[in-house]
Amino acid sequence: MKKDPDLEAALHRNRRWIVNNQIKNIIMQCPNQVAPVKYLQKKFKNLDLQGKALNWIKKYPCCFEVYLENDEYYCGLTKRMMFLTQEEEDVKDMQEGLYADRLAKLLMMCRDNRLNVVKLNELRRNFGFPDDFLLRIVPKYSKIFRVVNHTGRRSSVEIELTEWNPDLAISAIERKAKKDGREPCFPCSLPQTWVKSLERFEDFNSTPYISPYLGLDGLVEGSKEMDKRTVGLVHELLSLTLWKKASIFKLGHFRREFCFPEKLNVFLLKHPGIFYVSNRYQIYTVLLREAYNGFELIEKDPLVVVKEKFGELMQEGLHEYNRRHYVLNLEKKRNRGMIMPKPEKRRNQRDETSEQDKEGGDLGGIFDPEERKRFYRVLFDDNAP
């Protein structure tokens, strides 16, 4: 798939936010909300980071506070960071009902209306679920969900839907079509120069839309109807996420529950008008094209708004760190003699000229302006009066 600079920039920006948000969550779980840097270093492998944790943390002084105690470095959160963390928790409390609906919609799209808790836990932050959603949401909405374990193994714990809500069984595509007063169909976000891709999209979009909430009755694997439902299913899943994107690798874990094709990334690459597939950081990620205007999300969840404030704070700290680092490196180079002072010959000449003018040099102090003009005419013109 041809690279889209704007969507690649969105992925690059979100990557740093995600990493620092995970570091924040690790610190919040530590006693007194302070973590030894050695402990964070051990967690770096899980965050797919290399290098020293101390160097990474120091790049964001507006987010993290580092101090030395008993020859060991510790890391906590700044006051501004703590304020945003509290704001994030307040938003989560206000949106508990929305998270319950979102979880119900996920279960309604599954084959058996059940999802494995371990698998769902890997994508919980994509959907905005709190880390303790199993204890925070499921028991509170016991009429809708229940936890089952048919094998007795901890890895086999599942969340099951116990009550079907027809008001929730409406996809984002259907909701938009109803609002516009038209038949549901997929929007296309490709330029007019992609002629062949546009032709394939029009052919695909000419058949009736199949809602992912209708189930699999009568659908044959590999058929056009099944492909249509799968595209609608992935579209709906991405519509439910905060950033309208997800890791294809993690989505592939739900192959049995959602009846995904074996090579999901290859399948999604066939629909460039709807999805954008990137291999940035050597991780296949799929984004919903229509959800972005350039590198900015068009509709932002309240939780995304808070996280963007966190991103702005992070960028502010990174800018401060880079400026400070640049000044220190410049000073070191000067001390080593690696940077020579700029020549001041021209400036000195200008200074000497200005001094001459002040002292009357170059006839400036002998004649007034009119007399000077007359003097030069006489000097260079023999016929002058």
Describe this structure in words.
The strands form 4 sheets. Strands 1-3-2 form a 3-stranded antiparallel sheet. Strands 4-6-5 form a 3-stranded antiparallel sheet. The chain has a 3-stranded antiparallel sheet with strand order 7-9-8. Strand 2 and strand 3 form a beta hairpin. It is built from 16 helices and 11 strands. The protein is 49% helix and 10% strand. It folds into 3 domains: 111 residues, Arc Repressor Mutant, subunit A (Orthogonal Bundle); 89 residues, no CATH class; 113 residues, no CATH class. It is mainly alpha-helical. The longest helix is centred in the last third of the chain and has 34 residues. The protein is globular. The C terminus is likely disordered.
- Overall pLDDT level: 81
Give the termini distance in whole angstroms.
82 Å
Our Rg estimate from Cα atoms comes to: 32 Å
Identify the overall geometry: globular
Structural class label:
mainly alpha
- Percent strand equals 5-15%
Please write the string of helix (H) and strand (E) elements.
Answer: HEHHEEHHEHHEEHHHEHHHEEEEHHH
**Low-pLDDT segments, ≥5 res:** 352-367, 375-385
Q: How many domain modules?
A: 3
